[in-house]
Amino acid sequence: MHGVEVADDSIESAVSKILTCTDHSTVDAQLLRPVAARIAATSGVYFRFASAPRADCYAASYSYAGDTPEAAEVYLDHYFRLDPVVRSGLRWLHHPQAPIELVSGLSASAVDLHDHAYRDAFLYRYNIGHVMALIVPCPIASGPQLMCIGFHRCVDDRPFQAHEVRTFERLAPAITSAMRLLAYQDAERLSHDVLNSLSMSGGVGYVILDHDLAIENANARGLADLDVSPANGTAALLGEVRRLLISGEVSGQGGDGRNVFTTGGSRPLEISVSRLRSPGGRERYLLITSEPLTARLLNASTRLFALTDRESEIARLVAAGLCNAGIATELRIALRTVENHLRSIYAKAEVSSRTQLVSKLLRLQ
Questions:
Q1: Which of 51, 156, 175 is nearest to 108 (CA)?
Q2: What's the superkingdom here (predicted)?
């Protein structure tokens, strides 16, 4: 192709279109093409990289404008780690304090000898002779993101000229804003999806308290765990958490940045307290509620062994140390009924004694 063309390629028009890029589906039309037209590039590409826990980085999304879209896929499959333009950016993903060059220009003929595989097998293969690129680091709560946007000319074309580099630098603030907005929107959607999943699954609860320790946000499980009444928003357990925060017994600043404690009562509850900062800089607290590990293991085991509701109750009481007579009293059923249920539980769990049952329920064997 002989350049990516749009109807109006003025600086003002390009900036306007760039700043309306608020979704990945519009990156081609509102980001890549306006910039490519303004600097007479033959193709343009956008990548967003993220780092995975205990793994290398990966491309979270990409868009391409030009005649050879397969080049972007080949680049991601085999060559992006060899790209000297993005190399420092990829290092930054794992070490966010590392220096990073934001705007780069490159001619394929100038690629150093260590990158000859990248130059010969990729750049020349796809007729890329000159590159102008912008690297934008974006540290966000869900993990650092690296946005890269590059524009190309063919091997036989003239390099990007000084006035075109200056134009690109003038567009760089708008490009940076648009790419960071895309990353922030993705992070917001991820947070919404995670919180919505927590609310729907019932597995874990959360409650956010503001600087006055009033409930700012919560899911249904968190409110239920803290016995908060929808009518008045009060509960004895929530009051106890507030007392611990006011007294300093719980600060939300433990060894790993949080405090974890377990409540008593007939239904023990594990509460993790972390201190957060609001956008305005004021303190707030995130309470994560869940069953203690023992209760979670018992629940998982009763499901694994396909125990009935009554058998699950009896299995939990066995794990709590009650004898058969104690279980009968607790559940108000006959001793013989307890014994019959235990025989069924032993068969399902493939054990022959109480000790073996408790060990298997708590995954100790």
A1: 156
A2: Bacteria
Residues 6+ apart with CB under 8 A from 262: 268, 269, 270, 271, 292
Decide whether 11-193 matches 294-361 in CATH topology: no
Distance, in Å, from the CA atom of 271 to the CA atom of 183, rounded to the nearest integer, reads 31
Other C-beta atoms closer than 10 Å to the C-beta of 186 total 18
What does the block give as tokens for 339? 């014994």
CA 204 – CA 49 distance, rounded (Å): 30
Residue 234: φ, ψ to 5°: -115, 155
Write the pLDDT tens digit of every residue in 182-207: 988 888 877 776 666 555 545 578 88
Q: What is the pLDDT of residues 94-139, one digit of tens each?
A: 887 777 777 777 777 776 656 788 888 999 999 999 999 999 998 8
What distance in Å separates the CA atoms of residue 229 and residue 243, rounded to the nearest whole number? Answer: 18
The pTM for the full model equals: 0.60
What CA–CA distance (Å, rounded) separates 224 from 205? 8
CATH number of 294-361: 1.10.10.10
Hey, where are the domains in the chain? 11-193, 202-291, 294-361
CA–CA separation, 263 and 205 (whole Å): 15
- CATH tag for 202-291 (out of 3.60.40.10, 3.40.50.2000, 3.20.20.140, 3.30.450.20): 3.30.450.20
CATH superfamily to which 11-193 belongs: Transcription factor LuxR-like, autoinducer-binding domain (3.30.450.80)
Q: How many residues does the chain have?
A: 365
Q: How do 270-277 and 283-290 pair as beta strands?
A: antiparallel
Helix spans in the chain (H):
11-19, 27, 33-38, 70-74, 87-94, 116-118, 162-201, 220-225, 236-247, 293-304, 309-319, 324-331, 335-349, 354-361
